[in-house]
Amino acid sequence: MTTSAHGYDLATKDLDPPLAIVDLDAFDANADDLLRRAAGKPIRVVSKSVRCRALLERALARDGFEGLMCYSLAEAVWHAELGTSADIVVAYPTADHESLRRLAASERARAAVTIMVDSTEHLDLVDAALGHGHPDIRVCLELDASWRPLPGVHVGTRRSPVFKPGQAAAVARKIVARPGFKLVGMMAYEGQVAGLGDAAGKGLQNRVIGWMQRRSAAELARRRSAAVRAVREVADLEFVNGGGTGSIETTGAENVVTEIAAGSGFLAPTLFDGYSHFRPRPAALFALPVVRRPAKNVATLYSGGYIASGPTGPSREPSPYLPEGLRLLGFEGAGEVQTPVTGEAARSLRLGDRVWLRHAKAGELAERFLQYHLVRGSQVERTVPTYRGEGQNFG
């Protein structure tokens, strides 16, 4: 069920746009669907795709969601000290000396937080920040999950240099032999499956993407299994993390994977419209006011240039959502201080009316707003701060 523009307008009638909302019915329905797709395997909640503590806590309060995956060590220590979660993995290596010192100084944070490494150079960096003789730091070894079907061909994100099982075992042995570190987990993120829709383009393009994803997932399953076995001979791993919102089914089917990462599926940004095997409900929206009527079929909105990260292009622009029948102008797009929209629905818009838009990526919308208004039906149940609203900026 989709709430109409009228319902959202009514819920926020006493609030001035620009403003951002999260539809709780859609958020909860998406959480249900993530759990269904995981088929009993625990889901670790990816914080970068939410960036709002109240929503992270809402997800973690449900059975089946266990632990956070943060994108910054400073963020992870903040959550640990607030008690948001007692199980936090930092998905990316850190070079933040101050946060490393905060981590080492806090017994609570050290027990909760696991940092990411893929080489002994990362251990050197920690030693440089903390000095030798520091308390044990929990670490997770990242395996590169890209697909390399031919020499020189790399399909996927550029992450860890550890690709082969033998490389993983070699780094694991060095970690275990190093004082001040405890190897507790492994991770591999298959971005070419989890973050790339197989129904977002034309027929041939979709078939090629689907073929690539099937071949890539099969290759990774074999390689990840061998790598985990090799590392388990060296260390007693507490967890093996994999996947993302787009690859829950294939990643969860691997026996060696103990948990799945997911975050974007809660809020359903436009980049997640293009998957054939699941359809999340748009949950995060933002409203902009109409401030000009330059032509009968054009309404100009205030602000709106909230361009998502990644390869530049139309897929990273926000998309008009409600009322239906609006689109951006190709020449002007979404702008810093104004965003014109056109289409049949633009003819009936008046000054002060609201247009509801969706962001291309999930968490980045929270960098634009200090608050999310949590809406159910035509009522605002709560207004909660985003990370920015709590004065937090983790880069």
Describe the 3D structure:
The protein has twelve helices and 17 strands. The longest helix is centred in the middle third of the chain and has 30 residues, at 203-232. The mean pLDDT is 94. Helix 5 (97-105) packs across helix 7 (120-130) and helix 8 (165-176) crosses helix 10 (203-232). The strands form two sheets. Strands 1, 10, 11, 12, 13, 14, 15, 16 and 17 form a nine-stranded mixed beta sheet that branches. It is globular and about 70 Å long. It has helices at residues 5-11, 24-38, 53-60, 73-82, 97-105, 107-112, 120-130, 165-176, 191-194, 203-232, 248-252, 264-267, and strands at 19-23, 43-46, 65-70, 88-90, 113-117, 137-142, 181-188, 239-242, 259-262, 284-295, 298-302, 319-322, 327-328, 338-342, 354-358, 371-376, 379-385. Strand 8, helix 11 (248-252) and strand 9 (259-262) form a beta-alpha-beta unit. The two termini are 35 Å apart. It is of the alpha/beta class and 395 residues long. InterPro entries: Ala_racemase_N (IPR001608), D-amino_acid_metab_enzyme (IPR051466), PLP-binding_barrel (IPR029066). It comes from Amycolatopsis halotolerans. Pfam families: Ala_racemase_N (PF01168). Residues 22-193 form the Alanine racemase N-terminal domain. This is Amino acid deaminase/aldolase.
